Amino acid sequence: MAKSIDVSDLDIYYGDFLAVQGVNMTIKARSVTAFIGPSGCGKSTVLRSLNRMHEVIPGARVEGKIMVDGQSLYDPSIDPVAVRRQIGMVFQRPNPFPTMSIYDNVLAGNRLNSKRMKKAEQDAIVEKSLRGANLWNEVKDRLNKPGMGLSGGQQQRLCIARAIAVEPQVLLMDEPCSALDPISTSAIEDLIHELKSEFTIVIVTHNMQQAARVSDDTGFFNLKAAGQPGQLVEMNATKKMFSNPDNEATEAYISGRFG
Amino acid sequence: MTTTHETEPEVSPPSQRGDRIFAGLAKSAGLVILAALAAVFIFLAVEGIPGVNQPAETYAPLSSFLPYVGRLLFGTVFAALIALVIAVPFALGIALFISHYAPRVLAAPVAYVVDLLAAVPSVVFGLWGARALAPQLVSVQAWLGEHLGFIPFFAGPASVTGKTVLTAGVVLAIMILPIITAISREIFAQTPRLHEEAALALGATRWEMIRYAVFPYARSGIVSAVMLGLGRALGETMAVALVLSASPVVTLNMISNTNPATIASNIASSFAEATPAKLSVLIATGLVLFAFTFAVNFAARAVVARSERKFSR
């Protein structure tokens, strides 16, 4: 199920503005890849281009190649809707559908795929996904209550459950813990460890300890210079990145001597 | 409220006095509107209540107040509902087009044109409806009467002038279109990006995204918009008076020569030659319309408040 991603010569634009230039990287299947770097350097932009969410913004476009298991993501024959069904995403702020119950939130993606499902089948998916997101024990008695009634950390895990319910190949996470308290953060980090046996995970984070804790590989993004587009400075195994990075800028950023 | 000292820059807290002045202005504005509403109500009550008990011939072709106003009220609601049935799908479609489908270069002009519709005086719509639209609709109504005659609404025989309650409903629909469109467009455009992206990231098409994120968010706003449109349609006078040659009858037939009158159009067309007795009857019907519109608005608020409570839990 999990797939690897190859990115080559990726340039990302907002209208005429070149936001990110020349990204080349390989994201391994069944591993966690973290993107770190200062604000505004294009980490989230690159992440969003991996499931074609980038182009949702008017005028936004992408040049270059992204291959998922040998299939080009930006091939004209590829429907972006189909891409997003296979590459799930979790956002910075938890965003369960406010009018839906916990149960319906988990099934939202499956219902979009418009398969008619039996009640038993639905129940099974809900339980499996909520267990997968470590939320089942907390919500199993109130599945029909609104998802908005949960705490922030629970809502974020609900969003993860919703994303994994459709069994995607890749799970993208855009600073999934930045709106959460340390306990919820730790719950989600544990979850990421468990999920990586099944999914390819890419996570953007501002928290370098978090990158060090959860990821196998880390990519460091930075602006080339003030006013210049962002770029991938270095990508390496996380252990190496945090002990002995190849690039001086990486070391400066990681050790806090940045700028 | 303001004093001559105002021009002198005072050192000791200037913002507080500004606050007080503004609070006073806002409070008096609020009180004035309440007083105006109360004054209208009192006028209608004082002048109208005698109209409930007048000699039978005043209520011609009927003989007492309740059936008289009942039939007018029926006509009012009927015409307004026809207008809503026609206008709401169009208005929501236009609003969605502007907020989510149209390219930006197109969205702004379309929104502008729809807003312009609201600036056309209602008497112009009435003239257009009676002189231009009604003759055009003759053949449509004849077709409806011929092929859909088994539905009570189109029982016919179709009017040869086209001046029917259906035509009036179409005119009313065009008149309430801008307000429904404008309000729902604003609400649609305010849908949180977060919810839209949540749906898109799950692989929703644009329409699915609208169903998942936009409509649930906008539900209470749509109800408000529709209710405002309904309020406008209920009270609209000239457009209906000019299109319909109406009589107080109760019929569901939308395309025949006998058309139910509405309260407002009845007042407008009978006002000029009314005797004092008839006048008080007309004002009493006005009071009924006032109370009815009030009740509709109240009901709408209740619906909106309830659905909001449900979502916020």
TrEMBL record, chain A:
Family annotation (SUPFAM superfamilies): P-loop containing nucleoside triphosphate hydrolases (SSF52540)
Residue span, ABC transporter domain: 5-248
Gene3D superfamilies reported for this sequence: P-loop containing nucleotide triphosphate hydrolases
GO biological process, one term: phosphate ion transmembrane transport
Alphabetic keyword roster: ATP-binding, Nucleotide-binding, Translocase, Transport
Keyword Membrane: no
Gene Ontology CC: membrane
Highest taxon in the source lineage: Bacteria
InterPro entries, per database record: AAA+_ATPase (IPR003593), ABC_transporter-like_ATP-bd (IPR003439), ABC_transporter-like_CS (IPR017871), P-loop_NTPase (IPR027417), PstB-like (IPR005670)
MF annotations from Gene Ontology: ATP binding; ATP hydrolysis activity; phosphate transmembrane transporter activity
NCBIfam families per UniProt: 3a0107s01c2
Name of the protein in question: Phosphate ABC transporter ATP-binding protein
Species the sequence originates in: Nocardioides flavescens
Automatic annotation (TrEMBL), chain B:
Source organism, top-level taxon: Bacteria
Protein topology in the membrane: Multi-pass membrane protein
Chain ranges of the ABC transmembrane type-1 domain: 73-300
Any GO molecular function: phosphate transmembrane transporter activity
Entry annotated with the keyword Transmembrane helix: yes
TM regions (residue ranges): 21-46, 72-98, 110-130, 164-183, 221-244, 279-304
Record has Nucleus as a keyword: no
Subcellular location: Cell membrane
InterPro entries: MetI-like (IPR000515), MetI-like_sf (IPR035906), Phosphate_PstC (IPR011864), Phosphate_Transport_Permease (IPR051124)
PROSITE patterns: ABC_TM1
Keywords: Cell membrane, Membrane, Phosphate transport, Transmembrane, Transmembrane helix, Transport
Cellular component, GO annotation: plasma membrane
GO biological process, one term: phosphate ion transport
Family: Belongs to the binding-protein-dependent transport system permease family. CysTW subfamily.
Job of this protein: Part of the binding-protein-dependent transport system for phosphate; probably responsible for the translocation of the substrate across the membrane.
Protein name in the entry: Phosphate transport system permease protein
Organism: Nocardioides flavescens
